[in-house]
Amino acid sequence: MVLLENALASEVAKEVAPRNRALLVLLKMKKPGFRRVGLAARLLSCAECYGDVDGFDEGSPKIRIVKRELIVEQSWNRRQTVLVRLRFRHDSRSGRMALIGEDVEVIDRAAGIRQTVKTNLLAGTRMIENDRFDLEKKRYVNTGKTNRNIPEFRRFIEDVDYRDYESLQD
Q1: Which one of 76, 81, 148, 150 is most buried, counting C-beta atoms within 10 A?
Q2: What's the number of domains the chain is made of?
Q3: Cβ neighbours of residue 74 under 8 Å, at least 6 residues apart?
Q4: Which helix (H) or strand (E) is 90 found in, with range?
Q5: pLDDT tens, residue by residue, 96-109
Q6: Residue 11 maps to a domain
Q7: What is the reported pLDDT for 130?
Q8: Does residue 92 belong to any structural domain of this protein?
């Protein structure tokens, strides 16, 4: 369930303040009812934060559940586009939604450069791929790929802050 803050108009500036979003994750119980397993106050960017390509008022996160994984996709656009796909799974030990995967793609449209970083927190691996747009082939071509192991760490849905990804644009 996505919660959206009401728009409040500024008396002085006569502008609408950005509306924050929160993601509430409920788990259906065997008995009738639900249990809260996550409340992410900073996971989703504000309603007006999506930029030129998605439209300032039209952008919204894409949220879906596939094979018991909660997948959240967001993008931010200016000169650079940042695409983020986060995968969460219910952790029965903690009773919370654990981050299990993070895919981040940064595209500099003016320079024709793309970097994709895919992190699998369950396997402890990270793949970094760099591409450059080839005008003759009219597509991105790979210019380098690196795979590495990463130390194990646990992050939960409440720990994720969209501003960490949004800052990758600059």
Answers
A1: 76
A2: 1
A3: 44, 45, 50, 61, 62, 83, 84, 162, 165
A4: strand 80-91
A5: 999 999 999 999 98
A6: no
A7: 96
A8: yes
Whole-angstrom Cα distance, residue 63 to residue 83? 14
Please, are residues 19 and 4 in contact by the beta-carbon 8 Å criterion?
A: yes
What token pair was written down for 89?
């799974």
- 71 contacts 85 by C-beta, under 8 angstroms: yes
Predicted confidence (pLDDT) per residue in 120-130, tens digit: 999 999 999 99
Domain assignment present for residue 121? The answer is yes
Tokens 């591409």 belong to residue: 131
pTM for the structure as a whole: 0.83
What contacts 8, CB < 8 A, 6 or more positions away? 16, 17
What pLDDT was estimated at residue 67? 94
Tokens of 26: 């409920």
Q: Are 20 and 5 in contact (CB under 8 A)?
A: yes
